[in-house]
């Protein structure tokens, strides 16, 4: 039997068939969207929050099982989350699910990231850790470490991917992101920054060819929501041009990640992205350039202002909690492939994913987005 390395069209379609009731056609249910030729749940579980403890590891493992049972096949992590422990918790939970025959590897879309220095919780001397793992090994020069915390050298990207595979116990990662590359912009000029991006893209193309990743993406926080004159701004058109220069039209940069929630609406309301002869929002620009968009922080990091919560309650009165309404809002916005939320509580995950039961409501989401964006 051939080794199953990553998510496949057939595998994700199989997951959809189990997750969506036969009485609710997939297109009507709106619970899954297309990520290239894969099917991905419209809500994904992120594993960023929590202390780096055994207790939180165990809670995450139970939360991941709950998410799988509720029809979520999209999991988002990063090597830097919780001192590398979130990747290991995800790997352990998935291994147990595969061993029990509850799911199969080709059904699950696993995403991770490289960029920030991934300290381990047992690294007592941070400077020695950085020197031993990155400088002495030739992975990076001191000048490559922007602010001492961020790196994108090709060797660093490959090393971090190897660590991600080790931590998760998987043979391949489905989407591997460059994490917050804008972190470098205060420390280097634009020409250097773009050259570093291109070198990272070239290495990620090699990792696709080596079948260690399915595709790759760019995960940002501020960069795509800022005015073009801001120091940390990034242009999607420039990103597209840079990767096309590296790999041609057949490049594998497929996904853009940025925050979207009822209090952070710039991706839908702020026209800051020049594309050809138009100025578009980040989501519209990504669509026109052929990128899928994943929303991070769909719950607003649990800190939505009271007025945003009131607006969500008016827009989605059929849902019971602020978290459910926030997820329904994000997954209803047109142009988003999936919306990420976080929780270390299995019961909260089940409650949150009840938002998948009603179909998305794009009209209500757009009304709210444009009202709040004024």
| Derived structural class | alpha/beta
Proportion of β residues? Answer: 15-25%
In total, the number of strands is: 12
Main sheet properties: 8 strands, parallel, barrel
- What is the C-alpha radius of gyration, as a whole number of Å? 20 Å
Query: What value does the average pLDDT take?
Result: 93
CATH class: Alpha Beta
N-to-C series of helices and strands: HHEEEHEHEHHEHEHEHEEHEHHEHH
Count of alpha and pi helical runs: 14
Could you estimate the helical fraction of the residues in percent? 40-55%
Give me the side-by-side strand order of the main sheet: 3-4-5-6-7-8-11-12
The parts where pLDDT drops under 50 for at least 5 residues are: none
CATH topology: TIM Barrel
Q: Tell me what the CATH architecture is.
A: Alpha-Beta Barrel
The best one-word shape is globular
Number of structural domains: 1
Separation, N- and C-terminal Cα atoms? 56 Å
Please name the fourth-level CATH homologous superfamily.
NADP-dependent oxidoreductase domain
Give a structural overview:
By secondary structure, the chain is α/β, with parallel strands linked by helices. It has helices at residues 9-19, 26-29, 54-69, 85-99, 126-135, 154-168, 190-209, 236-247, 266-269, 282-288, 306-315, 322-332, 346-352, 362-372, and strands at 32-35, 38-41, 43-46, 74-76, 109-114, 173-179, 213-219, 253-259, 273-275, 278-280, 292-296, 338-342. Helix 8 (236-247) links the parallel strand 7 and strand 8 (253-259). Helix 6 (154-168) crosses helix 7, helix 11 (306-315) packs across helix 12 and helix 12 packs across helix 14. The mean pLDDT is 93.
